[in-house]
Amino acid sequence: MLGVWVGIGATIVATPIVAALPIVDAGTAIALGVGMGTGVAMGVKDSERSTKLLDD
Fold it and tell me: How buried is 29 (Cβ within 10 angstroms: 0-12 exposed, 13-18 middle, 19+ buried)?
C-alpha cells in the first residue's frame, strides 16, 4: 500500500514541473509515479523477507 501512496505523491509533485516544460507531457509524470511506486513496493517486499548471510 505504501507503493501506491508514494506513486501518487510523485505524480502530484511532478505534474506542475511537467506542465511548465514543453518537451515532456503528462505521460512522463505518470511514468515517474508508476516507477517510484513499483520500486517502493518491491523494496518493502524485500525488506519483509529475512535474509540470512552465509558464513564462509
Answer: buried
| The C-alpha cell that represents 22 in the structure block | 514543453
Burial class (CB in 10 A: 0-12, 13-18, 19+), 25: exposed
Note the pLDDT tens digit of each residue in 1-54. Answer: 777 788 888 888 888 888 888 787 878 888 888 888 888 888 877 766 666 656
CA–CA separation, 29 vs 7, rounded Å?
A: 10
- What is the sign of the dihedral through the CA atoms of 29, 19, 17 and 23? positive
